[in-house]
From TrEMBL, chain A:
Residues 7-276 form the Cdc23 domain. The keyword Cell cycle applies. Keywords: Cell cycle, Cell division, Mitosis, Repeat, TPR repeat, Ubl conjugation pathway. One of its GO terms (cellular component) is anaphase-promoting complex. SMART domains: TPR (SM00028). GO terms for biological process: anaphase-promoting complex-dependent catabolic process; cell division; positive regulation of mitotic metaphase/anaphase transition; protein ubiquitination. It comes from the Eukaryota. The gene is LOC100789971. TPR repeats lie at residues 337-370, 371-404, 405-438. This is Cdc23 domain-containing protein. It comes from Glycine max.
From TrEMBL, chain B:
Gene3D superfamilies: Tetratricopeptide repeat domain (1.25.40.10). It holds the Pfam family TPR_8. The keyword Cell division applies. The lineage of its organism: Eukaryota, Viridiplantae, Streptophyta, Embryophyta, Tracheophyta. This is Cdc23 domain-containing protein. It comes from Glycine max (Soybean).
Length: 578, 577
């Protein structure tokens, strides 16, 4: 063997080994030398012929493990044709291109593959061009956009990529990865129907590319669209459905699917995180917290999804746990958007709103489409009474995701602070439309109707009724229903709701001014109704308090006793001794 | 086969395929699901046993191609034992860890491998910890440092890594990759001798890791150290030697080595770039330009080393080529330090120094150890007469590389502008020590000696002599040597150098005030020496000019004729008919 050939074979193995160890610069360097070796003029066959000759037996060995059998759960899957294993040994130019890609030199990688026609090479070249275009687009956005403005920068590679990929698809020369990229391009161009079709083709022929499923999910905005997809049966489809159900707010369906997947993937942290997300959307914060504690124990340097955990800790005011989490992510990866949100939540809970905003801004600098950061920053500005800034932030959030009810609700709050109830009402209506089972939203809307400018108490009552039906945990709705009916001169309804409120406070073992208020109202109500026994019960309970209500209760009791003594007297008059 | 096993095997193949296509997020996701599959309680063997059983025949197939033969050039290499091929199928936790690594979640990757003892896993875990520590160190530096200040942030993982890796080495359980990492750790800790020894072990047992050679090179500061290394023969060693020679400023040795390597790696852009660097150091700018033009043609989106090309275009004032290059790198990768330097050079050549500084600052924001950016920024501040800022920038450069003669020279210039010739002299001396064959440095030093504050003309003359011997292309040295000797009242030496300068100007077909000055001086000199024929020659040449020198020449000629007519008269007196 000539020394050139020995160098070549050594380098080919080395590149794989170096790349396996993520030594990208060394791998790239070795790949450069590999293609730098002079080709022998007399050679006409591909330089890795020797391996190709033996690869079929290796491929056969692999195929043994590719047969999809019946899963344990007993559900029957149609066997999916699995894409054949790639060539075991990559071509020299492919190795060089991949090494450039690993060092994020995308245009360089694409150019190296300009004459390579293998499917793997075609994909890598197109993908590199796509990412080069995305990179340039990001740079242009930075150049063009104002502080909170937007730009219309585009990926300039989309046109040529679409042309090439559509031709390849038409000629049946595109593989699943090429289809995935084609779907990505179509989606960005706004051709959503064709993008869905192409992505379905991609996942049907190669189900293991989660990126493709993710893009497909982003194009399923309704249940009808989802049901219209003609997807082959495969366990990857179950992951997809679970995720889409979550996105479409079918939280219980999502949970069922994930519970099913746990049958096989019982150690999957991903599934646990997704279950936590569904529980979060159902506002089961205790369960969310327990799951995240387990996740943190298994995967202590995880940052993914931990921003949601910090939201839960914030809502539950678990200060020490949030502090611990904030310090951990700060040390793990402080320049990741999720980390910045966690730290922002931490400062927010401490009441340091300016510092909190600094971190949310940093999160948005790192990822300007980070929806949660916009919404949370809006909340901070509300706390700081900076309503124009809050409005700006919330508007960015709803621009990113028109279905973000938190942001619509936030806009309502901001305009409420500015004393503009008609605007408030508009935004609150949007938020309850998107999240009809959240009592807080109905309560906010009701309170808006109660304002002096609107004073639409009947409408407010309707909203409070909805809130009461949606498990109003803070029991605001029942109390306010009672008060409003009282103001409207509907004592019977007022008494009904005060009684309900009282029952709830008793069951939750809560005391306080609202209980006193309810007891007083009911005492007076039943006296007015001349149901003296019941009135007496409420008065007696009030005697246990030490405030002015005690004297009020005594006064009522004396009044009632006086009324009763009159009665016997009348009896005496009517029945003279015989 | 159970459905769990089929999922598992599908995912294992998918991870390789996705990773091969650089789909890191998808690969990571698949790897998470792979380790998420429930292990069968009844199973005690490793989960990839089936592949391991068959892997030896595959390994045998690979070994066929690992034999090192005799190279064509005929130089005999001792065959190096190549490391055996890795297991064909990676373990599940390795796949997950690598996927995290690919997404730069280093601590997460290390945690996944905490109980894995295979060599590959051990390396990846240690490498991940090292990079996590480096990342944190960078963050701390940003938190702690002032505008141009430094911080003493360190990689907190070094201590535990050193302990673990030294134990492995002691127990003979370390592989070449871990030796490389151990060398890295030792180097950062300042244990340079041991680091060299360990890195030599690494490259001797696995020569194909260029990273290891690069680190070893950074520890070879002298030829003696280089010669003391006990390196096995391998063609990778040739790449190493070529690179070290360049670093040690043995440019011709470096060129020879690269020319030799071209025999095998004739299509290597890397080798061409390295040759260009050596030529650049030898100031062969035309050759450098030609090589870079070829590189740009072969590899049009290359940014590596193109900052050097921009320096050449700047020096040659090739405005349109520099403009083209600047726009190209801007579109390719505008947030890369080399790109920023190229654009900075472009604005500098346009005379927009403030804009130029903006780009050099950006380069340094991206890589604060980017030596040429500091030096070039210093040059810009010199142009802008902002000497304090220039001094700051140059100081950062020499802190990074005490052998950067450009920065020392820049410091000299800055202090010269501040009218502090003793400081200037100090720095110029440092620069000529490092680059003794650069005439510009000697000229700068000479001019410093000439200043009114120092007025050490003999020393200045010595410097100009050195400059003249170093191929002073702008011919400043000869002219100034002549002038200085004239001022010192040494007409013979002055005439000598004026004559040499004149010869050079003639050979280079240059005209101008300096030529006039030389002609005038020589005319007067030869008249004073009563060598009227010589004097007449220079005067006659001066008659071709249209300035005041023409009248001066006429005057000299008339004076000389008067002297000659007197002579015959005297003859008559002495010889009566």
């Amino acid at each position: 063997m000539s020394s050139k050939e020995s160098c070549r074979s050594e380098l080919r193995i080395a590149i794989r080994q170096l790349s396996d160890r993520c030594l990208y610069c060394a791998s790239k360097w070795a790949a450069e030398q590999l293609v730098g070796i002079e080709q022998d003029p007399a050679k006409f066959t591909p330089s890795n012929t020797r391996f190709q000759r033996g690869s079929s037996s290796i491929r056969r060995k692999y195929k043994t493990h590719e047969i999809a059998g019946t899963p344990s759960a007993g559900v029957s899957y149609v066997a999916t044709p699995v894409m054949e294993e790639d060539e075991l040994v990559d071509g020299d130019f492919y190795l060089l291109a991949k090494s450039y890609f690993d060092c994020r030199e995308y245009k360089r990688a694409a150019r190296v593959l300009r004459d390579q026609n293998g499917r793997k090479s075609v994909f890598l070249r197109c993908y590199a061009l796509y990412l080069a275009g995305e990179k340039r687009k990001e740079e242009e956005m930075i150049e063009l956009e104002g502080p909170l403005g937007k730009s219309d920068a585009v990926n300039h590679e989309l046109v040529s990529l679409e042309r090439e990929l559509s031709t390849l698809r038409k000629n049946g020369k595109v593989d699943a990865f090429g289809l995935y990229l084609y779907g990505l391009v179509l989606k960005q161009k706004g051709s959503e129907n064709l993008a869905r079709t192409v992505l379905v083709e991609s996942v049907n022929s190669y189900p293991w590319n989660w990126n493709a499923w993710t893009e497909l999910q982003s194009l399923c905005k309704t249940v009808d669209i989802l049901n219209s997809l003609n997807l082959n049966s495969h366990w990857m489809k179950d992951f997809f459905l679970a995720s889409v159900y979550q996105e479409l707010r079918m939280h219980n369906d999502s949970l069922s699917k994930y519970e099913y997947l746990l049958g096989t993937f019982s150690n999957s942290n991903y599934i646990q995180a997704q279950i936590a997300k569904a529980q979060y959307s159902l506002r089961e914060f205790d369960q969310v917290e327990a799951i995240f504690e387990e996740l943190l124990s298994n995967d202590p340097y995880r940052v993914e999804d931990m921003d949601m955990y910090s939201n839960v800790l914030y809502a539950k005011e678990c200060f020490s746990a949030l502090s611990y989490l904030a310090h951990r992510v700060f040390m793990t990866d402080k320049y990741r958007p999720e980390s910045c949100c966690i730290v922002g939540n931490y400062y927010s809970l401490k009441g340091q709103h300016e510092k909190s905003v600094v971190y949310f801004r940093r999160a948005l600098k790192l990822n300007k489409n980070f929806l949660l950061a916009w919404t949370l920053m809006g909340h901070e500005f509300v706390e700081m009474k900076n309503t124009p800034a809050a409005v700006d932030a919330y508007r960015r959030a709803v621009d990113i995701d028109p279905r973000d009810y938190h942001a619509w609700y936030g806009l309502g709050q901001a305009y409420e602070m500015m004393g503009m109830p008609f605007y408030v009402l508009n935004y609150f209506k949007k938020s309850v439309f998107l999240q009809p089972n959240d009592s807080r939203l109905w309560i906010a809307m009701a309170q808006c109707y109660e304002t002096d400018q609107l004073r639409m108490l009947d409408e407010a009552i309707k909203c409070y009724r909805r809130a009461a039906n949606c498990n109003d945990r803070e029991a605001i709705a029942l109390h306010n229903l009672a008060k409003l009916h009282s103001e409207l001169g509907c004592p019977e309804e007022a008494a009904f709701y005060y009684k309900k409120d009282l029952e709830r406070m008793e069951s939750e073992e809560r005391e306080g001014p609202k209980m006193v208020e309810a007891l007083l109202y009911l005492a007076k109500y039943y006296r007015a109704q001349k149901s003296f026994e019941e009135a007496e019960i409420y008065c007696t309970r009030l005697l246990d308090y030490t405030g002015p209500e005690r004297e009020t209760a005594k006064s009522i009791l004396r009044g009632m006793q006086s009324t009763q003594s009159n009665f016997p007297s009348m009896d005496v008059e009517h029945f003279p001794p015989s």
